[in-house]
Design brief:
single chain; 201 residues; mainly beta; four-stranded mixed β-sheet; disordered N terminus
């Protein structure tokens, strides 16, 4: 009995020491964990419910999670078939939160969610940055930049979409935002989250 109790305590102590802080976003959920149908420029939030994020905290500050963050498009532009979007994600919780890493994204087309796998921090200088931990105060926003191609390729035509899911680093629920466009699902690239508003150019 004493030996079994000692083993349980040892395992619990080991698991408690495995917290490595915020991580990159996991796979973007394709289920019904998110909601909202908004026009571009408005904010979208997930519906209330049980969070599937890890709930990790760093130095007493909670991880930024999609259930208390509101997503919006800050600015968008494009040239030569490439669309660049600056995203803002506002902390609606009463306390500050922390985040570090790359967000996940998915796009809703006529056939359903595309299960997009984003490329992280490659292809453009303004997303080719090393992630760093940021703290976002109540009512403040974190930001990130995405790129995708909106032209037809040898693999086929670009895919029309009407909604976008954003999954913050180390989260497994998504915030959904209404946005209309066309993209090559294989071309999506994202930069790390930052607490500094990127330029729109």
């Amino acid at each position: 009995m004493t030996k079994a109790l000692a083993v349980v305590i040892l395992i619990a102590a080991f698991l408690a020491g495995c917290d490595n802080g915020p991580k990159d976003a996991g796979p973007v959920p394709t289920g019904r964990s998110s909601h909202s149908s908004l026009t571009a420029g408005d904010e979208g939030t997930v519906s209330t419910g049980e969070s599937t994020s890890s709930g990790e905290e760093t130095a007493g500050v909670a991880l930024c999670n999609d259930e208390v963050m509101a997503v919006r498009i800050v600015g968008q532009g494009g040239a030569a078939g490439t669309i660049r979007t600056v995203w803002g994600v506002r902390n609606t919780a009463p306390e500050s939160c922390v985040s570090k890493g790359y967000p996940g994204m998915d796009f809703h087309a006529a056939s359903g969610w595309l299960d997009t796998q984003v490329a992280r921090g490659t292809g453009f200088t303004d997303i080719d940055q090393t992630p760093s931990q940021i703290t976002i105060g109540r009512g403040k926003s974190l930001y990130f930049i995405s790129y995708w191609s909106d032209v037809d390729t040898a693999a086929g035509p670009c895919v029309q979409f009407d909604r976008v899911k954003v999954t913050l680093p180390d989260n497994f629920t998504s915030a959904e935002h209404a946005a209309i466009g066309c993209l090559d699902p294989e071309s999506v690239r994202v930069g790390p989250v930052t607490d500094t508003l990127p330029s729109n150019g």
